[in-house]
Amino acid sequence: MITDQTEVAIIGAGIAGLYAAYCCEISELDCIITDSLLIPGGQCSVFYPEKKLYGAPGFRDVIAKDFVNVLASQCLKGDFEKLFGHRVKNISKTSDETFAIKFDNCDVCKYAKYIILATGVGDMKPNVPSAIVGINDIDKSSDFIQYYRMKVDLYKGKNIVVAGGGDSAIDFVINVAPVAKTVALIHRRAKFTCEEVKLKYIKELEKTGKLKLAMEHNVSELKEQNGKRTVVARDLNSNNFNETSFDVDHIVFFYGFSLSGNSMFGLEDIGLETENDLVKVDINTMETSIKNCYGIGDVVTYTNKKKNILSCFFEADRAVRMIKKSSV
Ligand SMILES: Cc1cc2nc3c(=O)[nH]c(=O)nc-3n(C[C@H](O)[C@H](O)[C@H](O)COP(=O)(O)OP(=O)(O)OC[C@H]3O[C@@H](n4cnc5c(N)ncnc54)[C@H](O)[C@@H]3O)c2cc1C
Questions:
Q1: S-S: 49 plus which of 65, 223, 303, 319, CB 3.0-4.6 Å?
Q2: If you take atom 50 of ligand 1, which residue's CA is the nearest one?
């Protein structure tokens, strides 16, 4: 159900936030969950999707992204609002003690009786290339340039260039190639570092003409004129700077992420206590120094706090139990 009012607003859809949403669902608490990224899983999805995960109950051999997929399918099924691609900018309190949550780049304001801060290591922003000719001339509202998208349906029947050669770029190409009209992959190195099985699939896509590879190339220019969009790639090995042009609908950049830290959303002004940029919570309740504002996961600190997945689950469960108790 989509309204501006909710009982619980969960900020961050990493492991902690995801599980908190599930706990709200089974406790019959209305909630919304929001994340500045377009995908769930936070650090697991962004920093180490292919790493084996240790200490995840029920799994002996699981890599991070598979674990996130299983968790997201458990936790995001419920009938509540999921605001991916929405970065929280500011949280304040209204005169009736409700929290007002404001977002970057949109006028929407959400109101919640309880807040759960699950912002982990903070805001992870996709790296935006700036040295490409013409990139600053592209209309900001155009959907030509995109970053780190995993929803392949958006590219059905479209011509796409993918820029980057890491695991996420390769995974994206493998997923999008069957539905897109054409896919080209531009990578500045001569080789990919992904597993053999993925490499085989990439080669197969190339052989069948579904994928064009521009290895040892850089994206050098973007043009959008009279509805025609062009990506120019430059051969890094040729002294003549040989260039190849691709007519596209979208370019999707996979140039990694950078951290811009936790902002605390102005909550310090209404009494949020922090220590070394982490939110202090009472381990018995997971409540912060602000009434009805809770903290879970890597963003919080207390005596003997461990930053791991198990703690995310325990803290999410405890916070939601306490909210349920105080809401009845
Ligand atoms: C390399 C590495 C390996 C690890 N390996 C293991 C392991 O094997 N086993 C284990 O148990 N633990 C491991 N960990 C630790 C584990 O990954 C973390 O404890 C856990 O992922 C923390 O989850 P979280 O939800 O608290 O935070 P995060 O994963 O950081 O998620 C926070 C979310 O909040 C969002 N967010 C932040 N600011 C805003 C904002 N302003 N608006 C909207 N959204 C926002 C972010 O986009 C992010 O999605 C590892 C950590 C690292 C770095």
A1: 65
A2: 308
